[in-house]
User: What shape does this take?
Amino acid sequence: MAKGFSHTAAIVIVVLTSLIWHSEQLQSSQAQTLLRIQALLNFPTALTGWNNETDFCNSETSSTVTVVCYDDSITQLHIIGKKGFPPLPRNFSIDSFVTTLARLPSLKVLTLVSHGLWGPLPGKIARLSNLEILNLTSNFFDGAIPQEVSYLSNLQTLVLDGNLFSGMLPDALSSLSLLVVLSLKKNLLDGPLPDQLGSLENLRVLSLSDNQFIGAVPDLSNLTNLQVLDLENNSLGPQFPQVGTKIVTLILKKNKFRYGIPDKMNSYFQLELLDVSFNRFVEPFKPSIMSLPWITYLSIEQNRFTGLLSEDLPCNDQLEFVDLSANLLTGRLPSCLLSDHKKRVVRYAGNCLTNEVNSQHPFSFCRTEALAVGIIPHRRKPKHASKVVTALSITGGIIAGTVLVILMVLLTRKVFDKMVKAPPTRLIAEDASTGYTSKLYSDPRHIARAVKLGALDIPSYRTFSLEELEAATNSFAMSSVMGEGSHGQVYRGQLKDGSLVAIRCLKMIKSHSTQSFMQYIELISKLRHPHFVSALGHCFECYLDDSSVSTIMLVFQYFPTGTLREWITEWHGRQPLTWSQRIAAAIGIAKGIKFLHTGIVPGVFSNHLKTTDILLDQNLVAKICSYNLPLLAENMEKFFRMTAETQNLFFLREKHQEKLDVYDFGVILLEIIVGRPISTQTQVQFLTDQVR
Assistant: This one.
């Protein structure tokens, strides 16, 4: 019996000895890995206590160094260096460093802050497959974030702040379904944000500030747990981001947001901090934000928020910071912001409030600024236009009337049988049909800069104040009216520099904000060509209570010398155009149509041109004064009510009607040749037969 017990005890002792030896071997292996990491980091001060005798799993923790073990395996490693630590020596290899880290396969938390790590982050970081938290803040990593990061399927926190990462945000990050924190602040990342961000349903913190991201923020409304969204100092916009109602911190400072603050912001009951300062918002300020139950910080500084404030507006007692500076607010500051609150900071200079005259603009300033909303056209490199079919290849070499006759016959015979009856022509003051979805205009890639403004001798496009236009038209006197349409009048005016202008006033219904017209006005501002009557600027007249547009005033060049029809058919009292002048006019018109079709993308088709739509300047240069754009349309209100899909159908229909412009050009050629006005299909057929 004793002998059997002794034998069993011996076996137990052997097993325990084996386990202890195996544990010590693991401990020794991982200890050597940590000492290797110490050497690769160039023996930082924080790790001076590490040596061959260190019991890493039972050593004391500190604010800069922590090693956590579980079952004799290292599961957490935190090493935090001094702020501003310089890059490691040139012989440092990030590849070797990550290979060494991979010898800690049980690592779940890795924090390496301010250690001078540099170079591209290797894809082999994915070998740390158990990682749940990765923090590499304040180093010198560069290049793209590797796609292999998406292989870390257990990752819940990814913090890469304060590095030199560049390129676009990988779409593959959306596969990190457990991700709760994504922080990439202070890098060189650029491009648009991937739509896949909106699928990270567990995300609570998204911090992308101080990068170079551009474009729209993807829809984040499905991120129902999102609490922090920090997008400061990028070029994102123009629409306010769509987020869930659990948002606590929302920082959009220093971007290009212009509109779209949702009405449901009143239901952001957990919102504590909102900063939309230094953007381009042009819309009514929502005072109800100040009374949200948890709001403590609010900044709308340096925008163009409008609205009438009153003393009796409520605000949260917990508000500690409010900055309303440099906007277009009128009325009186709410008395709740002026109450004796020791911790509260309130700034409101640069508005038109009546509380402190010294720090406020006069009411007329806010009124003028609200009426004229600025748009600065983007400079675009010119693109080479493609060749235009049939008649639009006329650019020179036409030296006789006979050539014009041949060209006109070829044009009219090709399209005459298939001709769709064109609607009545219109001048700038008259009708125009609609044709394009606003989405096409909002994307700058669809606009080509085909003509350099400096070569056109055309003033830069700008905004006009209401006072300027009143002075130019003698307060819009009836004697200045040139024409009238269903949406308003066209006025003749003279600016202070002596230049003559035509001002088209479009009356709007009250439901449209300035943003509804931004993309159309931006397109108009880019339609500048030697053979166009170019737009010089615009002015918005708005209702001050809600900043919706009441009137749009578009300012065009004006040439009082008359239309092409007047010069070729009604030349009594003036010298008729010579054949060379008529040929030059025809070539100019062809160049203008070619630009409308190919000089911008999408092209502008179905312009329904007639000789009454062509003006001649003082040098008898032909200028097209009619474009087929929604903003110049009599049925514009109907167009705005269309869905995007319906607008796209309009676009497709118009694009396939470029033949109508070719036909109209043939009719213009015919009128130039015969010197008689043409207004009916019968006249076209008869005169075509005459010149064959």
Notes: Residues 69 and 464 are 69 Å apart (CA to CA).
